[in-house]
Amino acid sequence: MQKSNSPRVILSGIVFSALAACGGGDSTTPTPSVPVAPPAPTYTVGGAITGLKSGGMILASGVDKLSVAPAATSFVLPTALTAGTAYNVVIADQPPRFTQVCALANGSGTIGNANVTNIGVSCSDQVAVVSTLAGTNNPTKLPTGLPEPVFDHPQGLTLDDAGNVFVADQNNARIAMVTPAGVVTTFVGRTPGEAPSDADLVLGKIEDITRDKDGNFYAVGQHMVFKITRAGVITTLAGAPSIGYADGTGTQARFNTPLGIKVDDVGNLYVADTLNLRIRKITPAGVVTTIAGSGVRGSVDGAALQASFANPIGIAVDHAGNVFVSESNLIRKLTPAGTVSTFAGSGSDVGEDGQGLKASFNHPYGLAIDAASNLYVAEQGGTVRTISPSGYVATVAGKNRVAGRVDTDGVGSVATFSTPHGIAVDAAGNLYIGDRMGGRVRKIVQR
């Protein structure tokens, strides 16, 4: 007798029918979509600019920044804001000193339901007035019996808190002091009519000079670094008369023709060790270390001791500890973190103004920096330049590549320089120039 399979078939059909009634085993009910709210409308912040000629101005609101192009007539900050957001536009960087100064109106408010267009920036011209503070137009040695106001190859210079200028009067083997009224006396070294002495071996080769907050002076020359007290006592802080390269303490260290020196806020010295192609640091105790430069000639950026320099000459240090160096038609920057970069200059010697690497220099020599981090450059090519904190380069005074240059006082490019070497800036922002071949100390004020 055969068995029937019918009940099993019937059961399968029942199960299939039940699943079909439920929509199938693999079906899912669609989730209702949630409507996406449209983004809130945003509005720009901007306004009008009048009178701007120079570059270098930076506008900012919070972290939002805008570098304004020369001759711009309007601006719009990069970031758009939603309604109800506060803004506060300020001039973060002015155009370079001695060129223009700008003012801002209606800079703060709250975003409404329209673009902000009523902020106003107005700029007015500033000029550099060049005068002779001391000296004649001919480099002159003191033993001829001439009065003290003459100089023979004035080099580096620095200032004290009273505004007196101290000048490395190189070929006269002295450091001279010039009062704000232009009265010249010998601070240390040879006086008028005095015969050469052993002091000439030191003071006759001084290249640059700086002063610390305690009133001590420091000078570089003859492969050594000297300390000069306010009383005029000279001692060797570091180095020896022989050429070499070595880190160490005091006379154990060696230099090769250092040409630039500056002091920071805590008394550390920074030296442009020119023919060693390195930047050196000296503590107040006389401990010398190399902080930048591989010793290979070049202008390669990078980590401090792998970077290269091509005859570093002038040096300056700002309040943040950044070190600036002039060399081979470039201005280099060494950060406290130990990174070397090219701050300004294309490498050509045309002497053009412009932003950062688009600018060019004609043999930059001495450097100085003010409290607002404006950098000043004395160029052997016959000009004085300024560099804003953002890196915009502008000419303060003088003319580039003028044949047969003499020292002519005047305004801006009307003024001329023979061979600007040393440069210093006082608390009011006035500049002082050691005009080497002209035998003068020049003063530049902004008007």
TrEMBL record:
Cleaved signal peptide residues: 1-20
Domain of life according to the entry: Bacteria
Presence of keyword DNA repair: no
Keyword tags: Repeat, Signal
Pfam family, one: NHL
UniProt entry tagged with the keyword Signal: yes
InterPro entries: 6-blade_b-propeller_TolB-like, NHL_repeat
Protein name, entry field: NHL repeat-containing protein
